[in-house]
Every structure is written in C-alpha cells, then in structure tokens.
Amino acid sequence: MVGNKDLCDYGWTGPNGRQPPLAGRCFAYTRPSERETMQLQTTRRAADHQVAIEPSRLRNIRDRLEQERCFRIDQVAKLAGELAEEGLDHARLQVTREIRSAALYMLTEIESAIARLEDGSYGTCLLCGETVEWKRLEAVPSTKQCLPCDSSA
Question: Domain-by-domain residue ranges, the chain?
Fold first, then answer.
C-alpha cells in the first residue's frame, strides 16, 4: 500500500496481466503492539545467535531427552491407572492428580525441547534470544531460558 491507495490503483498487475482479486480494496496497516515487536526482535536475535553445539553433545542431549520422555509417558500411564482404581481415599487421589499434572507439564517441556533441537533453536533463550550457557543445558536439558531471564521471571 502506498499512502492511502492500494497498489492496484497504481496499475499493478499480476503475472497474467490482470489485477488480483482484491484489486481496489485498501487494507489498513496497523502497527504491531509492543509485545509483537519484542517477539519479532527476539526471533531475529535467535536466528542470529543460533548456538553451535558439537554434534556429539547434541546426540547426548537428545538421548537424555528421549529417555526422560519415555519415563514421563510411562509415569503418566501408571498414574492414570491409579486414578481409575476404585476406593482411593481423598488425600491419595489428590496427590496422584498433582503428580500426574506435574508429569504432563514436564512431558510438554521435554517435547518442546526436542522440537527446538529439530528446528535449530535449541540453546537460545526464548525470552531474550541470547545463548543459554552449556552448563545450564547439561543440568536441565529441557530449559528454555537463560539464567538472567529465568531469575527475573
């Protein structure tokens, strides 16, 4: 869009020599919100700061995440079986639900880390876009934030 006029008003045509189906319609440009701007900047910084981790370390991290994922899947299944049992007292039922909820949360975090490994953004803080320290990644492979961002949250 140029000024208040659509590109089609300036004689723009598509490859087939015709104007696109929305010719003559004007679409207003809205400025992105502050949050959208920050997310866009973080995404750009993350692309610029992709972490170069040795392939052997990445395999080790992936193996650990896969083991943890299998453990959590088994844990959730066992806890679901316990919840289905008849005759559990209220306290045990409540504790089992809380443990299952925590296991499901960890499973989500692990699967998110595996997805970041696959798309190349693993090791980059999701909040500020800076590199997460290797020691932190080794200690908690599913971490998604650097220490300063995690401490301030």
Answer: 1-30, 36-152
Q: Within 85-133, where are the H helices?
A: 90-119
Please count the other Cβ atoms lying within 10 Å of the Cβ belonging to residue 147.
13
Residue 60 is which amino acid? N
pLDDT digits (tens, 9 = 90+) for 108-129: 999 999 999 998 899 999 999 9
Q: Could you tell me the two tokens for 83?
A: 């919840």
Q: At 6, which amino acid appears?
A: D
Report the CATH number of the 36-152 domain. Answer: 1.20.120.910
Angle at 15 between CA 12 and CA 20, to 5 degrees: 55
What predicted TM-score, i.e. pTM, was given to this entire model?
0.63
